[in-house]
Amino acid sequence: MISVRGVRKAFGTATVLDGIDLDVHSGEVVSILGSSGSGKSTLIRCMNGLEKLDGGRITIDDFDVSRPKELAEARKRSATVFQLFNLYPHMTAVQNIALAPVEVLKIPRKQAEADARALLDSVGLSARADAFPAQLSGGQRQRVGICRALAMKPRYLLLDEITSALDPEMTSDVLAILAKLARDGTTMVFVTHEIEFARTISSRIVFLDKGQLVVDLPTAEFFAADGGMAKPRIAQFLSKMRKD
Amino acid sequence: MISVRGVRKAFGTATVLDGIDLDVHSGEVVSILGSSGSGKSTLIRCMNGLEKLDGGRITIDDFDVSRPKELAEARKRSATVFQLFNLYPHMTAVQNIALAPVEVLKIPRKQAEADARALLDSVGLSARADAFPAQLSGGQRQRVGICRALAMKPRYLLLDEITSALDPEMTSDVLAILAKLARDGTTMVFVTHEIEFARTISSRIVFLDKGQLVVDLPTAEFFAADGGMAKPRIAQFLSKMRKD
Amino acid sequence: MTFDLTILAPHIPFLVKGAVLTAEACVLALAGSLCIGTIVAALVTSASPVLSRIAYIYVDLFRNIPFIVQLFFFFYGLPEIGIYVNAFATGVIALSIAGGAFTSDVIRSGILSIDPGILEAAEVSGLSKPTIFRKIVMPIALRTSVRPLGSVFINLILTSSILSTITLNELTGSAKIVASDTFRPFEIYAVLLVAYASLTYLVSLAIGALHRYLNRDQTEAA
Amino acid sequence: GKLDDIRAQGTVRIGVSLGGEPIGFRDDKNNPVGYDVDVATMLAAKLGVPVEFTDVSGDARVSMLVSGQLDIVVANTSATLERAKTVNFSIPYNRAGLRVIVQKDAGIAKLEDLAGKKVVVGRGTTGESFLKKSVPTAELIYTDNFSPDGVLLLQQKRVDAAIEDSSLLDYLATKNDTLVTLPGLYSNDPIGIAVAKGDPEFVRWLDMFVSDYIQSGAYDANYKKWWGEKSNPPALTPLW
Amino acid sequence: MRYTAFTSYDIVLLAQGLGVSLALFLATTIIGLLLGSLWAIIRFYRVPVLMQIVTVFAELLKNSPVLVQLFLVFFGLPAFARLNVTPVEAAVITLSGNTAAFVYVIAVSAIESIGRDQIEAARVSGLSRWQVLRHIIAPQAMAFAIGPLTGLLVNQLQVTSLISVIGVVDLTKIGNILNLRTLKPFIVWAIVGGLYYVMAKLVAFGGATLEKRLRAHTAWKGL
Ligand SMILES: Nc1ncnc2c1ncn2[C@@H]1O[C@H](COP(=O)(O)OP(=O)(O)OP(=O)(O)O)[C@@H](O)[C@H]1O
Ligand SMILES: Nc1ncnc2c1ncn2[C@@H]1O[C@H](COP(=O)(O)OP(=O)(O)OP(=O)(O)O)[C@@H](O)[C@H]1O
Ligand SMILES: [Mg+2]
Ligand SMILES: [Mg+2]
Q: B189 near B30, Cβ under 8 Å?
């Protein structure tokens, strides 16, 4: 379980996260919605220990991510897909994916690279397995980023707008993979702008606004007229969705 | 008018664009659809002269982009927004936007920076105008990238998946801006994965598949059951769209 | 063996004169090598094969031949073909040319580590190549290479001690004279150490400040 | 004492200056030869150990003695009072005079004419301090090694004159017809063997060695060997 | 009296000098690279105390003339610390330390040149600091550092020539000896310069080859 308690984070004088409380239980899929700059990526970065908290506490399976020793444990159980992919430019797609399994999980390189190729195949990239990031299209890079996280067979997956560069075909393929992982018990935290996507996959939806968690509801309730939609801020947000 | 004639482009042995013909007339808004890796970004990169053609010819307002002298002219008339933003890391948002107007259009710096701030304001970023790219969220960076292109007041706009990191609210704001530009006569070429977006804004839709332009139809016809939808490849592509 | 700095007191003005000469030569040579280095780095990384070839030959020649040989060539060799340049000018020019070769190498490294996407963005917005170089390439390249550049400059200052071999009484030359007047080499070396360390430390400080300024976006919020 | 140390270490480390003939230079096989080298070789023979030569120049010869890197220096070192504050000298085994060499067309006939002229001096040599005192208005051009730097400056006519040991300059004048030496010898410096301070007995032994060198006729023979049969060895007084 | 002609013995002498310079260069380069990298790693890990010491020490070494350092080691150690050092030992100590100081600076800035986002991605996937250093930072830092490093080594190659003042007979000293004997500076320095040039070319060639390999992932198109 991921537990976020009273988390505060500021950059300089700007408070970006302002007292966030959130529990993600094992097997849950939670989507984080919110407008651009509301602090979604920052919250994810706090969860995997990339930002130092200015207040509050985050634990993953009871490991406190603020403590270096425990953070290492927490990271072994979780994996992150970044909004901007953050691939290693000097490594091919396969090497990008196989690195952590070899180094952290101590899987033999041969095996890890075979696994990596299998993963790439599952997202339609077997032909580009040996290309460097600079030789990949936007969507291809994003898929490599997703494979890199999945290769760690994590219990917790933190996903920051992973479908932004994917076309509808690819999106549905990736979603299918994630849905299967979710059924198998992987806990996921999604940041997304695609409300339909959130509706399809997640069991719970939370809504961030200016660094505060204003709504935390089961998916069905969130979209119910007397649930989340009753809140003016959310109604406004959702109304801007393209009507489709 | 942008004219693409028999364009071929290969990376090594892989042919990425395979004889593309496309005319974009002044005032038109053309969307390019296609699955990931189909060559959409490459086509845009060919149009603004970033890739050397292996065959064929591209002209913008009759300036051949393969000829250095004419390319300079073509670039004065056009602007590009990149899929991966490519902001200048050492400049603030305002500086990123004001650079080309000052240097290319010879607008006084004061004026250019004021314009830049106005643009940022129109996409809700006035508060972050003096932040560096590394201090911006994904969606904020993308908006800066869009402003940078708009600041050149181009006749032709080439846009590569500009909404990928935008939330629905922001997307509709940006779309409104672009729609206004289109009404004022700016010619646009869009690469996008959002079919609804394409349907709303564009006058024509072309569909790329494995480097070939398989469909080129007015928007209404494209979505008509006896138009683009009649082609199995497109029907398949569109069917994967989330049903919403 | 005693260590007594007071022995040097009467020679201080003389040493200071030497230090001033060193400082003058170095400031001029630093400016010179930065100019040459920037231009040459631009040429080396340019798309024109002829220009990059020429620049390459320059770097190759002046980086790979010992400075003292270059210096002797300029000072004792050029007069043979009728070119007389005074010792100070010879020293500054030789230092600039040699320093320029090393400088260009460091800047080139910085240029090559720039994300190509950024350059493409600049290119398509219609910026001319010189502008791209001035406004985008150089600032980003400098961000990553200020520190190695600092090393090159420090090396340059230290190398300037070789100018004593072409009759200049800069810091080292003066120190040698004082050393043979007083027979107190240790005290002199200690003073020399401090003097050069101060000169180069100034450069280090400036470089450090520049580094922080150029990389200010990497720190948390402005 | 030092004597025992040298015998214990099995070789004697002698610094010589190979900066100009006939004092010290290299033959066609690049081995050290010259007047000083011969003296040092004799010295080693008397000590009864093989010699290990180090080519020392300028102020390093004194520093290396002080820090114990060398046992003895036989490097044309003028025994001055200044230097004697730092190292010990034996009685003179040679004498040398300062000479001035000038460009023929520079219009310099006597020492005073050097006023305002460019004169090459070696950094830290006796010539430098002599000129500073006797012709303060001369413009000194400093080199670390008179040969070859000073020689080149003279040959390229970038300086008007130079001051150095007569042994070097007389030779140079015969090789260049644009250069002449002034007749005067401006000093008569005693040349001594230098050792580190702290062992008076060793200095005493060296004094005896030099006395023996002079009296046995080795001095005469050695001098004539390097300066020619017709030369007049300067008078040296043995102590013993 | 003067033997101004070149003889076959001169070639032997040049070869000896070349050998001495080369051996000294190789030894001090290897030690310097190891030491300098070690210091950079200490800084990367922010080892307390040690890191401060390294910073100060490196500052000191790179900010003072090698010649002065050489004198202090060669004359100072025996005089003040009663430690006898041979000229070769003094040269190795001094030049290694000096090389290390500059390697340290280059290594630090190379490490800093790598985007934070990648390091974050690697840390998050559970790689330890050491693994990040080895797999993410080192390969890319090398690509960045190889240019300045080649420059440094070429420079250090020439710096080795300073050791002739304490009596090590290296290539420059041989040049001096031959120059003095023959008074033909241009031939002598052309030959000596040529030999240095060839050595430097070898270093530079190695650097360029390595750089090409390390930069395989990015194509620089030129401006
Ligand atoms: N520099 C390169 N070297 C080799 N192959 C490349 C290079 N750039 C792109 N490619 C390949 O060319 C194909 C087309 O790439 P392109 O970027 O045009 O795709 P795209 O249609 O924009 O895809 P996406 O929607 O994922 O951005 C891809 O298979 C990609 O891997
Ligand atoms: N290093 C930083 N320094 C200063 N401000 C920062 C920094 N990183 C983020 N911010 C600011 O914090 C706010 C929240 O950023 P965050 O990346 O969490 O937004 P987000 O919700 O992920 O937005 P998006 O949907 O656009 O990705 C933004 O206003 C951003 O500008
Ligand atoms: Mg974000
Ligand atoms: Mg693309």
A: yes
